[in-house]
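User: Just a sanity check before I run the rest of the batch. Below are the structure tokens for the first item. I only need the designed sequence back.
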């Protein structure tokens, strides 16, 4: 159960965020209740504790302490201005718009600027919510100070979180998700016609989740490790394990199908697994395959401290033995490929275990295990601590800077929301402003804002229904209501990364309880909440569409060009190294490609959302992203293979590969040029298969004895996927010409 929890919430980040916020609020309520403050001040304290906890997002504890200390005077100043300007409508509205602009503009200064802007905005909103006045300021000062102290106590004493601890939990999550992926792969050989599509969908999901966790670890390595060399070693081992497990899945697909399958089966939406006839007969090799897949799952899942003894060593030795040709069972070539993949995955598991758990007992090592350890030790020694500084890309300036543009947009949208909100209600107009503010958070295009506004409105409507029912049940039971508020706050933070609609539901249900506590609850208030939310979302969309707009097409095209550029860089550098050229930091380049693809996947959500009326456009976006995922897999695999070249005794450079790669890189660059400028004259090149482009003259070597055969398969699939991108992106096959 712990492994399932670790896999569902990598690093326990959502659990920690929810628990810490609830702890800070509960502690604040306990202190204020002991001081016998009135209910409105209890509500203010709970809201101040919540914002002071979730706003601070730095990873290092000293930085968190500084931001929290700076946030207190910002909060006191904000609540003071809110109380003083509460009765001055025009001045208060103008200041609120200026505050919103400054809060969004502050994002350009990193996590601290973002946190201080959030605190300033949310505490000003708090003053409006509790109808703060000048005479109530001293009491509110005390309440806010108590809230910040309780937030610090929850953060640094009761529920401390260090970068190293977070990284350690992410490692466990990676192990758990790796084991889940292998468990799904183990179902492939015997999956019947009625089950195979579900297994394939589970395989896609498990692969995507593993990749997500690997990216999360990548973002925490620098802060959570002792030095750069350790970070690079962990990065390398995580990448090896991810690629080896994904390759094993593809080999299983090939062995499961009567026809040769490719990576499109794994990545394309709706792709079906070819069955090719009867289910495979359970012979000795198939039985051994099932046994060894379960053994690999155990090997991946358990750290050294939880699985010691001879049995584990024997399992490890048997799996690593499949890297030797003489240890392969008698079976078809496709099934033998799977056993080879098991051996490579076991080697990746050994490297991951050494990187995460340190040296181990080597007394039970077999010759195959000793050889694998020597290879890993040679790779570790080749990792240099220093890295060359990457050239900084030019950043946009002025109104083209994302933070400046977003600040102007949200200021205009908030002004519209204030004007419209005042017409709906002179007392609760600020709900429209809050919605307008929120739909701009973490969005970069008009389409993203539209989808986020729709989700917030849907969650709000559902939350109003729940709020009506809860308000009737709770009545005037103050502490029962506060207990439910804590439950909803935890649920809000726990579900926020998963579903914005769910988060909005819990927020609105919580607000219904707060209105009950303030004796301001009524059906009209909750209906007004829906109206103000719809108005705020509409104002946000209008501002994003009219003021310095960033169309979804433009945003996705920019990110698509970035992905293609990163793909070309990885492919060129990997093949250059495999051809005997100078080495490069290929793992880092591969991760840059993965991050660019993740950004593109997020930006295409407005295009792929189920409610979009443009069905063909939605299908095209999904198809393009799926092809890019296939390309990214082969790019990662090429990079991982090239990284092995200096130390792996069975891999030798092949200069012929450089020529085989030229067409692929040219086509990637041609597609990127066409996306960046549709008037570009770039054309893709076609020709014979990659394998046939290599000049004969060297004798054939064992299939896994040299690098060439494995690399050729990746290059061939990459060439096919890149060519497949041409049609949906507007480069028709009729315009292609063979390479001379």
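Assistant: Here's the designed sequence for the first item:
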């Amino acid at each position: 159960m712990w492994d399932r929890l670790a896999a569902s919430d990598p690093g326990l980040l959502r659990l920690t965020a929810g628990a810490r916020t609830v702890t800070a609020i509960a502690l604040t309520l306990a202190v204020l209740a002991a001081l016998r403050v009135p209910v409105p001040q209890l509500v203010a304290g709970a809201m101040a504790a919540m914002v002071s906890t979730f706003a601070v997002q730095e990873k290092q504890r000293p930085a968190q302490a500084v931001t929290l200390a700076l946030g207190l005077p910002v909060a006191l100043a904000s609540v003071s201005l809110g109380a003083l300007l509460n009765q001055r409508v025009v001045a208060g509205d103008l200041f609120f718009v200026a505050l919103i602009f400054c809060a969004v503009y502050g994002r350009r200064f990193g996590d601290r600027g973002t946190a201080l802007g959030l605190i300033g905005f949310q505490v000003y909103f708090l003053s409006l919510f509790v109808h703060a006045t000048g005479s109530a300021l001293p009491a509110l000062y005390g309440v806010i100070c108590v809230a910040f102290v309780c937030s610090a106590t929850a953060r640094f004493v009761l529920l401390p979180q260090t970068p190293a601890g977070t990284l350690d939990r992410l490692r466990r999550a990676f192990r758990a998700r790796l084991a889940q992926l292998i468990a799904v792969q183990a179902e492939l050989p015997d999956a019947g016609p009625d089950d195979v599509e579900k297994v394939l969908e589970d395989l896609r999901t498990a692969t995507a989740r593993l990749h997500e966790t690997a990216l999360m670890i990548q973002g925490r390595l620098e802060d959570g490790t002792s030095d750069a060399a350790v970070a690079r070693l962990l990065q390398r081992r995580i990448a090896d394990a991810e690629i080896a497990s994904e390759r094993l899945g593809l080999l299983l697909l090939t062995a499961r199908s009567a026809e040769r399958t490719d990576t499109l089966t794994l990545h394309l939406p709706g792709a079906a697994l070819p069955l090719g006839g009867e289910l495979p007969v359970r012979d000795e090799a198939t039985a051994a395959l099932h046994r060894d897949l379960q053994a690999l799952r155990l090997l991946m899942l358990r750290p050294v401290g939880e699985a010691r003894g001879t049995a584990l060593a024997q399992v490890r030795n048997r799996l690593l033995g499949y890297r030797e040709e003489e240890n392969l069972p008698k079976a078809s070539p496709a099934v033998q490929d799977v056993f080879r993949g098991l051996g490579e995955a076991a080697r990746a598991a050994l490297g991951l275990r050494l990187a995460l758990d340190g040296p181990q007992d080597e007394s039970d090592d077999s010759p195959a295990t000793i050889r694998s350890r020597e290879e890993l030790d040679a790779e570790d020694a080749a990792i240099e601590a220093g890295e060359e500084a990457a050239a900084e890309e030019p950043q946009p300036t002025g109104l083209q800077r994302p933070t400046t543009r977003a600040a102007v947009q949200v200021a205009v949208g908030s002004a519209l929301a204030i004007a419209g909100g005042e017409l709906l209600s002179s007392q609760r107009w600020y709900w429209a402003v809050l919605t307008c503010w929120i739909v701009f958070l973490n969005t970069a295009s008009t389409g993203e804002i539209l989808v986020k506004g729709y989700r917030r409105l849907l969650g709000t409507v559902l939350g109003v229904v729940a709020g009506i029912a809860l308000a009737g049940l709770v009545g005037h039971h103050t502490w029962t209501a506060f207990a439910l508020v804590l439950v909803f706050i935890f649920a809000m933070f726990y579900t926020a990364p998963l579903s914005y609609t769910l988060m909005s539901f819990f927020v609105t249900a919580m607000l219904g309880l707060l209105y009950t506590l303030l004796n301001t609850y009524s059906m009209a208030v909750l209906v007004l909440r829906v109206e103000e939310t719809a108005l705020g979302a509409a104002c946000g969309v209008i501002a994003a569409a009219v003021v310095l707009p960033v169309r979804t097409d433009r945003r996705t095209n920019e990110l698509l060009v970035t992905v293609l550029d990163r793909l070309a860089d990885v492919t060129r550098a990997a093949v250059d190294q495999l051809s005997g050229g100078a080495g490069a930091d290929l793992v880092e380049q591969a991760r840059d490609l993965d991050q660019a693809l993740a950004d593109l996947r997020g930006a295409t959500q407005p295009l792929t959302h189920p409610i979009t009326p443009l069905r063909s456009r939605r299908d095209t976006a999904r198809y393009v992203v799926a092809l890019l995922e296939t390309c990214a897999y082969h790019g990662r695999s090429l990079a991982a293979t090239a990284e092995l070249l200096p130390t792996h005794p069975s891999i030798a450079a092949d200069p012929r590969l450089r020529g085989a790669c030229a067409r692929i890189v040219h086509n990637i660059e041609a597609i990127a040029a066409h996306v960046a400028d549709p008037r570009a004259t770039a054309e893709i090149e076609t020709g014979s298969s990659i394998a046939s482009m290599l000049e004969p003259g060297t004798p054939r070597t064992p299939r896994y004895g040299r690098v060439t055969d494995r690399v050729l398969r990746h290059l061939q699939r990459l060439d096919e996927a890149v060519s497949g991108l041409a049609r949906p992106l507007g480069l028709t096959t009729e315009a292609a010409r063979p390479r001379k």
